[in-house]
Hints:
Blueprint: E1 8-13, E2 19-23, E3 29-33, H1 37-45, E4 51-56, H2 60-68, E5 75-78, H3 82-102, H4 115-138, E6 139-148, H5 155-162, E7 167-171, H6 179-182, H7 187-197, E8 202-205, H8 208-222, E9 229-232, H9 239-245, H10 249-262, E10 267-274, H11 281-294, E11 302-309, H12 316-336, E12 344-347, H13 352-361, E13 364-367, H14 376-384, E14 390-394, H15 400-403, E15 408-410, H16 415-427, H17 430-444, H18 449-461
Parallel strand pairs: 1-4, 1-6, 4-5, 6-7, 7-8, 8-9, 10-11, 10-13, 11-12, 13-14, 14-15
Antiparallel strand pairs: 2-3
The chain binds 6-O-phosphono-alpha-D-glucopyranose (G6P).
The site of 6-O-phosphono-alpha-D-glucopyranose has 8 residues, from loops.
Amino acid sequence: MASPYGNHQILVASNRGPVSYDVREDGELQAKRGGGGLVSGLSAIGPDRGALWVCSALGDGDREAVARGVGEDGVRMLDIDAEVHADAYNGIANSVLWFVHHMLYQTPLEPVFDKEFRRQWASYEEYNRAFARALADEAAEGAVAVVQDYHLTLVPGMLRQLRPDLRIGHFSHTPWAPVDYFRLLPDDIAEQVLRGMLGADRLGFLTQRWASAFTACAQELVGGLGDTRVGVHGLGADADFLRRRSHEPDVAARMVTLREQIGEGRKAIVRVDRTELSKNIVRGMLAYRQLLEDQPSWREQVVHVAFAYPSRQDLAVYRDYTAEVQRVADEINSAYGTPGWTPVLLHVDDDFARSLAAYRLADVALVNPIRDGMNLVAKEVPVVSDEGCVLVLSREAGAYEELGEDAIVVNPYDVVGTAGALHEALVMGAGERAERTKRLAAAATALPPAQWFLEQLRELEG
Ligand code: G6P
């Protein structure tokens, strides 16, 4: 008898998939492939295991691809109603859950959980349900499904109801909020999120700190973890890929241009981020300005290279934050710049080859997030660096757990302290800098993406 189930043994679910589509001027669809841990993880298990990636159509190009039946083997894009998706993704995932886990609210005035929030929450439920149903349709009996991130917290519980035979995992790529902060959420919503996650057999986090925070929330609010196991998998950098990619000719060309812009003989303090509110780019610039004040001998001798790539531009706070980054950079340049020296070199257009070029030539890497699940930039720079790079690292980044010992560690809110750390980093001797970079690179690559993914599968299949 034919099985009533689907035929996929391994399923991944995430809001953003591995491919996206643009409609070109001639009306043809153009596919763009993304990277990241999951992409390498899935390629490591090979095509024969019948893996399927369920994701959401995000833009008009993606919706058009679904409508025309265009797609890739192993990917199923869900065409969720655009308004439902916007409420779920922009309204709840990025404006509420992201804010809670990164502790981003200015609490005297926000959050306000009003009727509008409740309306958006209903969309978040609907969007999660669409994922749960698709997974339930596609999964073979006893298959493994790994659900990703805060967008899809309700999926494990919903899927468990539909398909009790499945082995369900959920992985959080963000921090988890401490109990007191998590309790900003309305009680019923907080409980729903926790119970949704606890529908999984196993929950994965990037660090022990986030795993413990989740466990504490579960204990306080829903009486514990029940049968759900919790594990830590600290996603590392992909050394083979990075070393190869960073020696391709386009990166070399970018290095020449960057070196010209920085100026021969000057030091470079590099940062590369998506322009997230949590990345703390503005305080990073304020710390750099403080350095130029406290240690005027660095003037003309150092450049702050800041790449702040666009992210979530549908949200006004993100647009405002991007404008503020630009404003502070301009302000520093007009206060301190000279005809031959631009103190801050800010680029806001995404260019991966140029990021790698900056990694290779950086003297200091500034990674100072307010709070961050892991922060892969902190792990990538030491792998790619040509001559060694000092890492100035926030203790609130997940990467701190593995890299803290060989970094110069900062409190991300302490601008004066960060200025001091930048100075210390700039004066570190070449020998120590190279030694530390070597140890950082080893720690950063301890769990490459493919192993990171396989480890989770093994735990679920086990
Ligand atoms: C960051 C977070 C991930 C999240 C992703 C979503 O990279 O670390 O947890 O899934 O943002 O970004 P997006 O551009 O899809 O909103």
